[in-house]
């Protein structure tokens, strides 16, 4: 098991984005919106399309992910990472879609200037691809992992009507995954990164949280809002700082 990872430097927000297919009212630039609603998505009018992320300046990329999509379990993607025209990574693999999201963690961080992502889902019953959220960028991992006091769960949007007989009729509107992460062992040198993550989250940008970047399945990954507490120093002179944050899926 690898130490958890946080992605907070999303190149999609500052890169030049292009796609070989896009609906007129749902352009690829919609990927810069923090909202996960299909009304703010990039929609390709075909079931195979390529998204090209041209970084504003050469930078590190370790993770490529998409979230809140309409992709099916049969979808696959080809990810090509290049620098100055030289291909650093080129792999085609199943997307392993779980709850509409897919995450690809590269074996190592690559310094690059272009990431091309070709998504193929020929059996999609909608006849198009809907991608509301994407992350392309580095992954920061602390030296030590989070505490076993951490937990995960759901926020539920449920309308309930109760009849005079007491019969209940719940109607589910939305399900939002969440995690409460407690960490007791950050190093003092890592607190500068924690503060930067909180500054990014405070302006409404989404943060990617991977409990185990080395896991075969990234089902527990959450891309969304991060709300962090104060950084503590519970162990006196020891090089250990505490920080608890809540991560909620962006809907």
SSE pattern: EEEEEEEEEEEHEEE
Q: What is the CA-CA span between the terminal residues?
A: 29 Å
Largest sheet: 6 strands, antiparallel
Tell me the number of strands.
14
As a percent range, the share of strand residues is: over 45%
Rg is 19 Å
Low-pLDDT residue intervals, each spanning 5 or more residues: none
Mean pLDDT value: 95
Q: Which strand order do you get reading across the main beta sheet?
A: 1-12-13-14-11-10
**Overall shape:** globular
Query: From the helix content, strand content and strand pairing, which structural class follows?
Result: mainly beta
The residue fraction in helices comes out at: under 10%
How would you describe this structure to a colleague?
The chain has 251 residues and is mainly beta. The protein has one helix and 14 strands. The strands form three sheets. Strands 1-12-13-14-11-10 form a six-stranded antiparallel beta sheet. Strands 2, 4, 5, 6, 7 and 9 form a six-stranded antiparallel beta sheet that branches. The mean pLDDT is 95.
């Amino acid at each position: 098991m690898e130490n958890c990872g946080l992605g907070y430097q999303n190149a999609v927000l500052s890169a030049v984005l292009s796609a070989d297919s896009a609906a007129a009212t749902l352009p690829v630039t919609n990927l810069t919106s923090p909202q996960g609603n299909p009304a703010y998505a990039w929609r390709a009018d075909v079931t195979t399309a390529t998204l090209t992320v041209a970084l504003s300046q050469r930078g590190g990329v370790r993770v490529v992910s998409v979230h809140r999509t309409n992709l099916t379990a049969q979808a696959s993607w080809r990810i090509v990472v290049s620098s100055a025209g030289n291909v650093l990574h080129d792999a085609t693999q199943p997307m392993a879609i779980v709850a509409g999201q897919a995450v690809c963690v590269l074996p190592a961080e690559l310094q690059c200037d272009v990431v091309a992502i070709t998504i193929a889902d020929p059996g999609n019953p909608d006849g198009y691809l809907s991608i509301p959220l994407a992350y392309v960028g580095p992954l920061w991992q602390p030296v030590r992992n989070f505490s076993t006091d951490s937990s995960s769960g759901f926020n539920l949007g449920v309308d309930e009507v109760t009849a005079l007989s007491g019969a209940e009729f719940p109607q589910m509107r939305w399900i939002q995954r969440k995690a409460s992460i407690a960490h007791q062992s950050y190093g003092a040198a890592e607190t500068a990164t924690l503060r930067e993550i909180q500054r990014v989250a405070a302006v409404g940008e989404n943060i990617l949280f991977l409990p185990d970047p080395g896991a075969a399945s990234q089902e527990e990954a959450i891309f969304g809002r991060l709300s962090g507490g104060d950084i503590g120093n519970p162990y006196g002179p020891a090089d250990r700082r505490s920080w608890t944050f809540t991560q909620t899926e962006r809907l």
